[in-house]
Structure formats: C-alpha cells, structure tokens
C-alpha cells in the first residue's frame, strides 16, 4: 500500500506513517516496515531521520541523501525541530501542564520516572488540552526533549495515561461501548498517539488525524 506523501523536497520527504507498521524491520524479523515501503514506492534508497513507535501514526521524515540525513539528524538532536503530538488520555485534563521529570530505563524495554536519588535522563513535555470529554481528553503533547516513550510515561505520571497502552496502561482494546456508543466492535486497539505536526526552518508539516482516532473522538463527542 502506498504511503501518503505530505511533503517532497530535494533532500527529504515527509510521509504520513500508518499505525501498526514499524519504521524499520522489527525484532520479530518481519520485513514489512515504512522504510521498505517508501523505498519501493520511490524506487530509491532513503535514510531514517527519526523514529516513531510502531503504533504511533503521523508525520515521519526520511532523507534522500547522506548529507541531508546528517543535517536533519543533527537538527533533531539539537532541538531545532518542534514536534506536536495528539494523545487521547484518561480523565479530564482542563489546564496546560509542563511535566519535568527525568526518565530511567526499566525492564522489558520500558521507561519509568526516576526515583529520588536516581540519575535519570532529563525529560520535559508540555501538555495542553484540546478537547475535554466526560471521562477523557484529547491533548496536544509537545516534547521538549526526545526520550524513548517520553510522552506515554509522562502522561501516566500525572494520572492521565493513554486510553489504551499495552505497556503503561489499559491492555484491553476499546470498543464502541467503551467510548460512549453502542456495540462490541473494536475502535482503538493501539496507543492513541498521533504525530500531528513538525516545524523546521520555516516549514510546517502536518498529518491529518487517523481514521481510528477520528472514530473514537466522534463516539466520545456523542
């Protein structure tokens, strides 16, 4: 299946990554991944600039040459790229909050908040409510640092975990009934995290909200 191209530039392309597909081949040995799909689609090699979790949808950049790859990689590492995610979380979050809590590695490829006295990696995320529902909130998450699973762990730490998260929260997929509708059809079976926007050197690249998140929001809206 072809990947939607959000932007094409001489040195890089931005794609709308589908949820459920890894950026590169996974540990399970499965060959299908976004990079392979894009190389087949463009008929040329591409370089991975940054990563999104398998379940996360949205804006993803790939370089088309080694020089651009170096430039973009350094821009991400240097905090020159502004990122904004959408996340669907438990509970009502009605005011912005800046989460500044260092992270450390935990078991089973997880991360956790550093305990007092532990030397964790600094991590800051700005969270802003976009739409508040009866028992859930659609928030904007702007990571100031770029740690593994940062948004998910930070949201969990303030009592607003993602509505579905097999590693850090609820492990049962959400049905129509769970989201305020009627019926047993599964609506959300992945972490509801969407890389909505990237800003870099005057460029703004935005990905439309995915179909499953749109369906969940429609049900929550009644």
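Q: What amino acid sequence fits the structure above?
A:
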């Amino acid at each position: 299946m072809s990947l939607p191209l959000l932007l094409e530039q001489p040195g890089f392309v931005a794609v709308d990554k589908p949820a459920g597909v890894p950026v590169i081949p996974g540990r399970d040995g499965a060959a299908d991944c976004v990079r392979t799909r894009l190389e087949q689609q463009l008929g040329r090699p591409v370089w991975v600039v940054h990563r999104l979790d398998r379940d996360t949808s949205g804006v993803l950049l790939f370089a088309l040459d080694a020089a651009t790859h170096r430039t973009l990689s350094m821009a991400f590492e240097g905090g020159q790229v502004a990122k904004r995610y959408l996340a669907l979380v438990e509970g009502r979050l009605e005011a912005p909050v800046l989460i500044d809590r260092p992270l450390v590695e935990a078991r089973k490829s997880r991360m956790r908040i550093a305990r007092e006295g532990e030397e964790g990696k600094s991590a800051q995320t700005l969270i802003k409510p976009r739409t508040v529902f009866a028992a859930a909130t659609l928030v904007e998450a702007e990571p100031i640092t770029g740690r593994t699973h940062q948004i998910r762990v930070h949201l969990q730490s303030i009592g607003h975990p993602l509505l579905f998260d097999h590693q850090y929260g609820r492990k049962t997929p959400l049905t129509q009934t769970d989201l305020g509708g009627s019926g047993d059809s599964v609506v959300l079976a992945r972490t509801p995290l969407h890389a909505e926007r990237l800003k870099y050197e005057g460029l703004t690249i935005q990905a439309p909200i995915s179909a499953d998140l749109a369906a969940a929001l429609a049900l929550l809206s009644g």
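Q: And what stands out in the fold?
A: The helical segments are 34-42, 66-77, 150-157, 211-220.
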